[in-house]
Amino acid sequence: MFKQLFQAMNEQLDGIIHALPTAYGAEKHALLGQLKQLRDISDLVIEEWLLFEEKLAELRQQPSLIPAAATSHEALMHEPDDNLSDYPPFTMPYQRGEGYFKLFMFQQAAKEFETVLTSQPEHLHARLYLALCFIQTEEVTEAYRHLQILTQLTEDAKLKAVAYNAIGCIHAILGNKEKACESFQVSHSYDPNFKDPVYNLEACRTNTGVLQLGVAMS
């Protein structure tokens, strides 16, 4: 159902994108009206999806209500990236932030993760995601600050690996190739099975490829 809905929306949006540059008068007004309708539908879908995710999170906080037979389906309710296993307890802002992050809505996600850190400054995964949001919105100073705090607070090797990989990406963005390579090497030393710093190290040395932040966004 949703696949057909979004296929139709994408086809309509493609038509608007193609026609809008040369449209004028009544035609342009009609196209802008169609674009507003698509935005309204998109906002509604996002709002309903986030509400659904919040209800799932509430259910997960009450394991006594879930039959034992359902535990094998737990991964369908929430499936974290391999490098971010062992999540802290769910909170509503965290859940919303993660949802926005997966939708590439990084400014909205950052606000939710900041809310989490206001009451739970030790929530390391929220701090990591906030830093990644700041990287995506090109607020690299704030991203770097949160990543530095994270590397000092956590003893988890995988989490350190993701953090140092992101620090390396920041150095690469700023043109500090030597520091970027050092950070990627540190990341790899914490988790040799984590492939992104290896890829990033090669990309940085050869000026090819797109840097990988190390967290799935889909």
Low-confidence stretches: 68-83
Strand segment tally: 0
Q: How does the major sheet shape up? A: none
Total DSSP helices: 10
Q: Which structural class matches the secondary elements?
A: mainly alpha
Helix % is: 55-70%
What would the CATH topology of the largest domain be?
Serine Threonine Protein Phosphatase 5, Tetratricopeptide repeat
How many structurally independent domains? 2
Average pLDDT figure: 80
Q: Please report which band the strand proportion falls in: under 5%, 5-15%, 15-25%, 25-35%, 35-45% or over 45%.
A: under 5%
Morphology call: globular
- Write down the CATH class of the largest domain: Mainly Alpha
CA(first)-CA(last) distance: 19 Å
Kindly report the name of the CATH homologous superfamily of the largest domain: Tetratricopeptide repeat domain
What is the radius of gyration?
21 Å
Set down the secondary structure blueprint.
Blueprint: H1 2-19, H2 25-60, H3 74-77, H4 92-102, H5 106-119, H6 124-136, H7 140-153, H8 157-173, H9 177-190, H10 196-206
Helix pairs in contact: 1-2, 2-4, 4-5, 5-6, 6-7, 6-8, 7-8, 8-9, 8-10, 9-10
Q: In words, what does this structure look like?
A:
With 218 residues, the protein is mainly α. The protein has two domains: 1-79; 82-218, Alpha Horseshoe (Serine Threonine Protein Phosphatase 5, Tetratricopeptide repeat), CATH 1.25.40.10. Helices cover 70% and strands 0% of the residues. It is built from ten helices and no strands. The chain has helices spanning 2-19, 25-60, 74-77, 92-102, 106-119, 124-136, 140-153, 157-173, 177-190, 196-206. Helix 5 packs antiparallel against helix 6 and helix 6 (124-136) runs antiparallel to helix 7 (140-153). Mean pLDDT is 80; it is low at 68-83.
